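Need tokens for this chain, all 322 residues.
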Amino acid sequence: MSELPTNYQRDASFDSRLADDEIDLRELFSAIWAGKWVISAVTGVFAIVAVAIALYLPNIYKSEVLLAPASSEQSSGLAGLAGQFGGLASLAGINLGGSGIDKTTLAIEVMKSREFIAQFIDKHDLLVPLMAVKSWDSEANKLVLDSDKYNSDSNQWTREPVPPRQAKPSPLEAFEEFRQILNVSQDKQTSLVKVSIEHYSPIVAQQWVEWLTIAINDEMKTRDLREAQRSIAYLERQLAQTRVAEMQTVLYQLIEEQTKTIMFAEVRDEYVFKTVDPAVIPELRARPARALICVLGTVLGALFGTIIVLIRYFYKKESSAR
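Here are the structure tokens for all 322 residues:
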């Protein structure tokens, strides 16, 4: 019958394993030290590649505008009418609203929509500076086009078409590219909205942000004008058909509110967004972070070199143990 190991034997066994681990750890560091030239060489290669990549990447500039939602007195007026006469108006088949999506949220979503961006690109003729630019010449202050994509002499798209894409970018492809450089965000606490554009040229980035602010205000203004004009026409038809005094009062007040909407739209340039901090031409690039790329490349090189040395060490150790 075998005897159970004593506490002294168990402690001795643990100490022996611990000593072996310490010896293995020292051997591990010795192996890394022995392979220091391999690690240095791999780290150097990675560092050179990282520097080359950092220098090759073109500068990207970011221009940003800070907007505040414009007050909407006409909306509050309709909301008041909805609370006061909503039940009476519903009997005549008239919906006063009073609820629904916030106009600021709607404007943000419209700004990011395919139709709005496609119209914006087409109106300002942005297809070439959006899809065919590869860098910006700061000294000459001009965009440098990629000849593999667009020939500026003949004004022809020269890129190789890859089905279903054509040589000339489609509106959908242009939209997808534009969404990569456009960022729209809203602070939930202050309701302030930030709109930014990233581009090779700081001047282009600032110009496009200004155009976007004007375009979204004009778009929302046009939508509200059309809706108000159609509403007034409908309300006047309803007014001609009713003889109930209470209903006539509701209809007259509704026409008044819709007339206010037209008035506000006509006199306001900043219809849905007011500029708090206008976009400026950035002086410093937003990316790439060249120093960070070089540091990360060097660290990855050192890590990769260490892994190579350790793999060689364990492979030789297993081979000698056979």
